[in-house]
Design a protein that fits this description.
Distance between the termini: 129 Å
Mean pLDDT: 82
CATH class of one domain: Alpha Beta
Low-confidence stretches: none
Helix content: 40-55%
Order of helices and strands: EEHEHEHEEH
Structural class: alpha+beta
CATH topology of one domain: Translation Initiation Factor IF3
CATH superfamily of one domain: Translation initiation factor 3 (IF-3), C-terminal domain
CATH architecture of one domain: 2-Layer Sandwich
Length: about 190
């Protein structure tokens, strides 16, 4: 029957009792499966782990810069490994490192959740933060709504300013209107006579 239709007899489920077979064009089937797999790879997101390194004696400006990068990575959907490197006598005070990592967690806010708690690994302490998709979406939506309301307020303010300017201009024009001079007055004498 399959040869008569110039198709293939393909065994779909060999473990079933009785085995299940279909009559189909096997080349076309393989092509469609490859296209589905390619489309699935396109839609999948590639999550990578980014690393941000801190030191126990980091300055405020450097801390803020590294936090901006960390938040940017999390908003892009990447996991972030936060590493705190100790040197020399800093190893005697791991509580300073924990304080920095607590500040990182507080700075990241609700958009990041701690995947792996901080732990010492030789001369470094590290933890992994992962993005919280729901919190990031809520934050984006709130930012869009705030931008829309700000734009509406600015438009209303500019309209009110334009109306006020127009009424002021109309008032000034009414005040500066020249008074009608009598036409019976002779012209002023000139010094030529």
């Amino acid at each position: 029957m399959a040869r008569g239709l110039e198709l293939d007899l393909v065994e779909v489920a060999p473990q079933a009792n009785p085995p299940v077979c279909r009559i189909m064009d096997y080349g076309k089937f393989r092509y469609e499966e490859a296209q589905k797999a390619k489309e699935a790879r396109k839609k999948s997101t590639n999550i990578s782990i980014k690393e941000v390194k801190f030191r126990p004696k980091i300055g405020k400006g450097d801390f803020d810069t590294k936090m901006r990068h960390l938040i940017e990575f999390i908003e892009e959907g990447h996991k972030v490994k936060v590493t705190l490197q100790f040197r020399g006598r800093e190893m005697a005070h791991p509580e300073l490192g924990r304080k920095i990592l607590d500040d990182v967690i507080a700075g990241a806010g609700p958009i990041a959740k701690v995947e792996n708690q901080a732990r010492m690994e030789g001369r470094s302490m590290s933890m992994v933060l992962s993005p919280d998709k729901k919190a990031i979406d809520a934050q984006r939506k709130a930012a869009e709504e705030a931008a829309a309301s700000t734009a509406a307020e600015e438009a209303a303010a500019s309209t009110a300013a334009e109306e006020a300017a127009a009424s002021t201009a109309a008032e000034e024009a009414a005040v500066q209107e020249p008074s009608a001079e009598p036409a019976d007055e002779p012209p002023a004498p000139s010094g030529d006579e």
